[in-house]
Amino acid sequence: DAQNAFKVRISIKTALGDNAYAWDANEEYLFKAMVAFAMRRYSSKSTTQISNVLLCNVTDRVSFWFVVTDSSKNVTTVPGSEVEAAIRMNRNRINNAFLLSDKTLQFLKITSTLSPPVEPSTPVWLIVFGVVLCLIVVGILFLVVSGIQKHKKKNKESTERENLEEKVEVTLENGIPCEALDLKAGHINGVFGADDERFTSL
């Protein structure tokens, strides 16, 4: 219940699955060492020792409280703001020591630091260039295909026109074009059209 105490929750099974290790006295010693390291690195002083980091209320599901005491006054605790700043400054080093992340090694009162933005392996300009190039290629293919289809359609229409012209045959007699006879309707010969004109008048 110390004023400058911090609660820690660790999820080793969630992070490592079958490769999870057991939390024991050695792991506790490593945690104390990492907190002492963070404090020494933050304050640039060598006053903080492993013995200054105290753990209490350790549970089987790996949660506990810790507090950092002042070396000069072994009873007084280090202000929480300094401990928080030291943990935030060395968060990645602490996580790496336990093979964990901010989600599986949680300091409940200490907000996690923002991770640096992930830069894509492919440069942005190369992605934009690839998209533009793809659009150009698609446009060219569309123009080529539509041109081929128009050409085929035009050839088909001209072929059909030629076939129609071949069907309508015009016969020539003595150089004069004559209409083709309609065999179904027949054709009336004007010479034999009227009986009264069969014979010439006297």
From TrEMBL:
- The name of this protein is TMM27 protein
Pfam families linked to this entry: Collectrin
* Parts forming coiled coils: none
**Superkingdom of this entry's organism?**
Eukaryota
Originating gene: Tmem27
What the entry lists under InterPro entries is as follows: Collectrin (IPR042944), Collectrin_dom (IPR031588)
Arranged from A to Z, the UniProt key words for this protein are: Cell membrane, Glycoprotein, Membrane, Phosphoprotein, Signal, Transmembrane, Transmembrane helix
Membrane topology value: Single-pass type I membrane protein
Record bears the keyword Transmembrane helix: yes
Give the transmembrane region(s).
124-148
Q: Which GO terms describe its cellular component?
A: extracellular exosome; plasma membrane
UniProt GO BP: positive regulation of amino acid transport
Provenance organism? Bombycilla garrulus (Bohemian waxwing)
List each copy of the Collectrin-like domain by range.
2-202
Could you tell me where this protein is found in the cell? Cell membrane
